[in-house]
Amino acid sequence: NCVVYWMRMTDLRLSDNRALSKASEKAKEDGVPVAALFVISPQDFIAHDRGARKIDFTLRNLRVIKEQLANLHIPLHTVTIMPRKKIPEKVLALVGSLGCKRMYANIEYEVDELRRDIKLCEVAAPLGIQVNLTHNRSVIEPGVLFAPSSGKAYAVYTPYRRLWVKTANEDLSHYLDEVAYPSANDASVRGSKLFVPLFDSEIPNFVEGFVLDEEDSKKMTQTWPEGEDKAREVLLRFLGTKARSTQLGAVDPLASGAQGVTKHNRVVKYDEDRDRADKDTTSRLSPYLSSGVLSIREVFRTTMDMFNLKKIDADGKTGASKWIQEIIWRDFYTDILASFPRVSMGRPFLEKFAGIVWENHQAPHDPNAAGNPDSDAEGLMRWKLGKTGVPIVDAAMRCINGMGWVHNRPRMIVAMYLTKHLMIDWRVGERYFMEKLIDGDLASNNGGWQWSASTGVDPCPYFRIFNPYNQSEKTDPSGDFIRHWVPELKQIRGPATSSPRDTHAMCGEFGSVIRPSKPPKAPGIASKFSSSSMHSEY
Ligand code: FAD
Fold it and tell me: Which protein family is named in the record (predicted)?
């Protein structure tokens, strides 16, 4: 007999993990051991366009977790299951073979995963296995906040954020409280000879079909080291430090004593600098938050603690307030994912835009989908490789290709460029991001792409098209970001890298692919958006 915790790809940590904490409490109460399970499902990786970087990051984190769990005498079993539709039965067979009657897991809100969990509960009930599913991904879980006028989930961010802040402030201890760290299996149960060998297994070094080449693997490991402690270092590097409690241990290289926040901390200037890609301005926590290596509630708690905030400010203008407001986007997009399953099925949120015929159409996961005959295959290839000739677009794409991450504004710039200059289907870009980003996350990625393509929740209007050169001045005023990622332009001094005329004159072969700065293709994109299947509001 035991209690099983099924760890998912989005909860790769021990602290502030509701399902693990509950499993551990229940096991203690019943005097039985806890066992942890992780399912590798290559078909789900394919269905979600997960790239090798993300899978490698998951496996690296699992290795750390396995060791941490072993210190608590909790074995971690990793099992590969195919086909994916058999996951519920196979997991329950495994759990049943241990005589286990209770299983705990945190909810994943993607539609395939919700269906899997519904089936899990259906199959488990007749077997007498109780499945307990818990919200753990957000501060305010999906389904709590509704627009008072419609009684439906919010589809606009600002009123969502205001209600989010009001709701959180009314009961901060409920929303931000930390759950108990799992306790060690006690001595009598941890010795169970039958139990451990069956349930303990090695974490594989790779998953077939998702292998990183050696160089990329080294780079990813250096840039994005695994483990909760490392994630906490990243948080503290951004927030600054004051004397921290014991859980943070000695992992505090930037400790500035008990003085608390110093002017050097990036968060202090986040309100002014967050769009700057030429500086280290944002937290770079997204890889850790998207895989759940760090708890979003811990991020909030630590920020509030650091700035001695008693309440969250919905409209505050300080760096910390602005940062908190940005993080709320993550809850917003999770809420959208859970409330509108169509967004995880490749559908536009605004269904009236489903009929747009893009220049290069690739229906997700449909190998037989015919491409549009006038597809801009070369344009797409250039975009992917960072060889469009537009310096800021190329720098951003090469940054993504190089480090699996880029600031938010360059993401918006390249997304708009793909959808509104090249007029290529946003799903093609969404998929490419998922394959390359180490922080690839369906809710935020889909939200960002549909915002840029003007098909999503609270989108920019279809006629709003970023001029990449103006945007370049905004996000890379020094030109350092472009020079770093586009070495062909390194001779150019200052922000001239934003100007097509200057770069064209100076950059020989590279310059020759720079297209002249044309006015945005407004008439073209407008005609897409007024295709017969839509009744345009604009
Ligand atoms: P910070 O500015 O320090 O913000 C802190 C955290 O808040 C982030 O780590 C993230 O968890 C959250 N956050 C901030 N802005 C947003 C936002 N606009 N939407 C959702 N969450 C936000 N984010 C991902 O985590 N995964 C993705 O796959 C992803 N794809 C994107 C695709 C496009 C086209 C766009 C425009 C945005 C995308 N984002 C995605 C959102 C955002 O760009 C990243 O979260 C952010 O750049 C990560 O850097 P950071 O951790 O330094 O952010």
Answer: Belongs to the DNA photolyase class-1 family.
How many angstroms separate the alpha carbon of residue 326 from the centre of ligand 1? 8
Domain with 38 in it? 1-136
Spatial distance between the Cα atoms of 481 and 391, rounded to a whole number of angstroms:
10
d(C-alpha 27, C-alpha 36), whole Å: 12
323 is in an annotated binding site: yes
Q: Which atom of ligand 1 is nearest to the CA of 415?
A: 34
Residue located nearest, by CA, to atom 46 of ligand 1: 408
Residue 321 CB coordination number (10 Å):
20
Ligand 1 atom nearest to 445, measured from its CA: 30
Would the annotation count 498 as a binding residue?
no
Q: Is 411 in the pocket of ligand 1 (CB under 6 A)?
A: yes
Cα(470) to ligand 1 centroid in Å equals: 22
Top mutation candidate among 237, 337, 444 for ligand 1, by most atoms within 8 Å of CB: 444
Q: Is the CB of 336 under 6 A from ligand 1?
A: no
Tell me, yes or no, whether 504 lies in a domain: yes
Query: Is there a binding annotation on residue 440?
Result: yes
One-letter amino acid for residue 20 of the chain = L
CA 406 to ligand 1: nearest atom: 47
pTM of the model: 0.90
Amino acid identity of residue 68, one-letter, is: Q
Residues 331 and 388 in one domain: no
Chosen domain end from 339, 364, 390 = 339
Tell whether residue 87 is among the known ligand binding residues.
Answer: no
Burial of residue 151 (CB within 10 Å: 0-12, 13-18, 19+) is exposed
- CA of 247 from ligand 1 middle (Å) equals 27
Please check whether residue 451 is in contact with residue 353, taking contact to mean a CB–CB distance below 8 angstroms.
no
The answer on 352 and 334 residing in a single domain is no
- Annotated ligand binding at 538? The verdict is no
- Beta-carbon contacts of 107 under 8 Å, excluding residues fewer than 6 positions away, are 114, 117, 133, 134, 135, 136, 137
With a 6 A CB cut-off, is 320 part of the ligand 1 pocket? no
Closest C-alpha to 26, from 133, 107, 126, 104: 104
The tens digit of pLDDT for each residue in 287-336 reads: 999 999 999 999 999 999 999 999 999 888 999 999 999 999 999 999 99
Evaluate the omega torsion of the peptide bond into residue 126 and state whether it is cis, within 30 degrees of 0: no
Centroid of ligand 1 to alpha carbon of 482 (angstroms): 21
Q: Which residue, by CA, sits nearest to atom 8 of ligand 1?
A: 286
The domain boundary, picked from 136, 161, 196, lies at 136
Q: Could you report the average pLDDT of every consecutive run of 10 residues in the chain (538 residues)?
A: 95 98 94 93 96 98 96 92 97 92 97 97 97 97 93 94 96 93 77 60 93 96 98 95 42 36 75 94 97 97 92 91 95 97 94 87 50 69 95 97 98 97 95 98 97 90 90 95 95 79 55 40 45 27
Are 322 and 385 found together in one domain? no
